[in-house]
Specification:
2 domains; 6% strand; 10 helices; 46% helix; mainly alpha; globular
Amino acid sequence: MEKAIETFLTRPDFYRSYNLHVRPFDFDPRTDLIRIPGNDAGVFTKGHEWVRDFGRGYRHAVLVFDREYGTDADATTLRDELCARVCATGWDHDRFCVVVIDPELEAWIWQRNQRVATPLKFNSVADMVAAVRAAGLEWGDGEAKPSRPKEALQAVVRQRGLGWSSAIHRSIISEISLVGCQDPAFVELRSALQGWFPREVNS
């Protein structure tokens, strides 16, 4: 996940209106992107401690993890629990954001867009959708993404002989526009960043 976030926030156009629609801000993945031990479960169980101990030099913090890490709890419950623990460390709620991607990061990647189809070696969006359905996974007419995003990406990667790696995520994220992404977790993240780094009027 951290490589996907790094790829997006180091794009020269990440702040543009067709992506986050914020004013430009400095982001150095070497110092500003911290991987908490324990993967997604580690972020949920220990994220507040990392904000408390390492967040003193920052005005804002974002904690991101996938909902599907071995729990049956829903995204709202997980977010609210971690938010409460972060607030208990002394951080004001408007200084941080907890983003629970439901079900997982691939929900942000899928679009009915040639910029997704091309890195996956499809000649057209229609071919890409057909391949997902041929793998026995649902992608309803009018739906922006498959019902099981991670399984769909794994299936088409196998079909196309691409090999599963973070490079697949990076190649897509480096090209797509996120203006149309309505995933609730992404919308929450974008809203927080827009509040912290608002665009100038007419910019």
